[in-house]
UniProtKB/TrEMBL annotation:
UniProt binding sites for an alpha-D-glucoside: 138, 140, 157, 164, 347
Biased amino acid composition, Basic and acidic residues: 257-281, 375-398, 428-453
Biological process according to GO: ERAD pathway; protein folding
Cellular location(s): Endoplasmic reticulum lumen
Gene3D superfamilies referenced in this protein's UniProt entry, alphabetically: 2.60.120.200, Calreticulin/calnexin, P domain (2.10.250.10)
Molecular function (Gene Ontology), one example: unfolded protein binding
Name used for this protein in its record: Calreticulin
Similarity comment: Belongs to the calreticulin family.
Disulfide feature: 134-166
Bias-annotated ranges (Acidic residues): 247-256, 407-416
Keyword tags: Calcium, Chaperone, Disulfide bond, Endoplasmic reticulum, Glycoprotein, Lectin, Metal-binding, Repeat, Signal, Zinc
Length: 453
């Protein structure tokens, strides 16, 4: 009998801990969610995979722990195990949010490790089938002391990474590192994908404190953890005790001493009486008051006089206090590292559901992560795009057909309304004719009675 995958994982984990005390395999964990038996690993996977977990239908929810967060107020959403409405491989299933206006929280455990002196690669695929307008698609790496049943929005995490979309203002990749209890957001903007297809997001943290962010195996951002996160105080700061020297000239321009205000300049009026104005012939001083000529802008008036300026030959630039060593700065050679990483979690709020996660990978080998993305997302992206295009074509055809049906129904309702109106008019005419007849009969009867008399 073949050993279940989760038992293989448990056995391998125990062996690694007994031998090394820490996890030293290249791939810490691979979480893929499929409903078919595991296929033979490729040479790349055999060489690098410390654990490979394709997962059967019966296994995915054993490995993943659904949190009880938000269940008391009935706002906790349910996850579906599915390959989605359109896909490149119907057997390649992930977990998908299934209810609108809901909170989602789910997590899985792997062998605890630290990425000190190692490269850390966090990678996963995500697809927003619902044409997301507000909601997240990110994952979190969590420490060992997390209670998975209580995992939620307030649970401390070590790393949060992935796309976040809300309206037109927010369409970016989050990369948040938590140090000393404070969440530090990346300062650089990293736009995320916004279509309805699967995309792979990769975060790489290296021992030299550099990082890279990739989307679909293409680098979108890179730099230094020191520079692009405000984790540590600045190495240098302005000397608070420094004072500007008295002879420091920071005015770039000075008034030109040779430029003098013209004599009588201030006496020039802003407006003058219109010279061609004449009192109207029908103007009555007694009734209209004393007539005064209107005023017009004075063409000689140039506004307040401003003295010309010349370059200051002694200009030294704007004065700034000199930089000194910041006594609050203490270098952290492990600014990129975390002591305890033991859980992968997904915690979201979604207005519209339909986000699907799959192929979560944690490794210390960027090349392996790249090949893993090629073997999963890369092999199926074209087929998925074709399936999506076909689904869109059918959707548009259905919308067009429904629109025509609605137009026909509206036209039919309009015709019925016209017919009903015409019938009402006919009934009114007939009723009027009947009344005329009755009046005629009454008149005739009255005339007959008069004749009898």
């Amino acid at each position: 009998m073949q050993t279940p995958l989760w038992r293989m994982f448990t056995t391998e984990t125990s062996r690694l801990r007994r031998v090394n005390n820490v996890i030293t395999v290249t791939v810490i964990v691979i979480i893929g969610i499929r409903n078919t038996p595991a296929k033979s690993a490729s040479p790349v996977r055999q060489q690098h995979a410390g654990f490979r977990n394709p997962m059967t239908d019966d296994g995915w929810d054993y490995r993943w722990v659904k949190s009880e967060w938000k269940k008391e107020d009935n706002t906790a959403g349910e996850w579906n195990h599915t390959s989605g409405k359109w896909n490149g491989d119907a057997d390649d299933k992930g977990i998908q949010t299934s209810e609108d206006y809901r909170f989602y929280a789910i997590s899985a455990q792997y062998p605890e490790f630290s990425n000190k002196d190692k490269t850390l690669v966090l990678q996963f695929s995500v697809k927003h089938e619902q044409d997301l307008d507000c909601g997240g698609g990110y994952v979190k790496l969590l420490p060992a002391d997390v209670d998975q049943k209580k995992f939620g929005g307030e649970t401390p995490y070590s790393i949060m990474f992935g796309p976040d979309i809300c309206g037109y203002a927010t369409k970016k990749v989050h990369a948040i590192l938590t140090k000393n209890g404070k969440n530090h957001l990346i300062k650089k903007e990293v736009p995320c994908e916004t279509d309805q297809l699967t995309h792979v997001y990769t975060l790489i943290l290296r021992p030299d404190a550099t990082y890279s962010i990739l989307i679909d195996n293409v680098e979108k951002q890179s730099g230094s953890v020191y520079d692009d996160w405000d984790i540590l105080p600045a190495k240098k700061k302005r000397d608070p005790n420094a004072k500007k020297p008295e002879d420091w000239e920071d005015e770039e321009f000075l008034p030109d001493p040779e430029d003098k205000k013209p004599e009588g300049y201030d006496d020039i009026p802003k407006e003058i009486t219109e010279p061609d104005a004449t009192k109207p012939e029908d103007w009555d001083d007694e009734e209209d008051g004393e007539w005064t000529a209107p005023t017009i802008p004075n063409p000689e008036y140039k506004g307040p006089w401003i003295q010309k300026k010349i370059k200051n030959p002694n200009f030294k630039g704007k004065w700034k206090a000199p930089l000194i060593d910041n006594p609050e700065f203490k270098d952290d050679p492990y600014i990129y590292a975390f002591d305890s990483l033991k859980h992968i979690g997904i915690e979201l709020w979604q207005v519209k559901s339909g986000t699907l996660f799959d192929n979560i990978l944690i490794t210390d080998d960027p090349e392996y992560a790249k090949k893993f993305a090629e073997e999963t997302w890369g092999k199926h992206k074209d087929a998925e795009k074709a399936a999506f295009d076909e689904a869109e074509k059918k959707r548009l055809e259905e919308e067009s057909a429904n629109a025509k049906t609605e137009d026909n129904d509206d036209a039919a309702d309009e015709d019925e309304g016209k017919a009903a109106g015409a019938s009402d008019e006919e009934n009114k005419d007939a009723s009027g004719d009947e009344k005329v007849e009755e009046i005629s009969k009454d008149a005739s009867s009255s005339s007959d009675k008069k004749d009898e008399l």
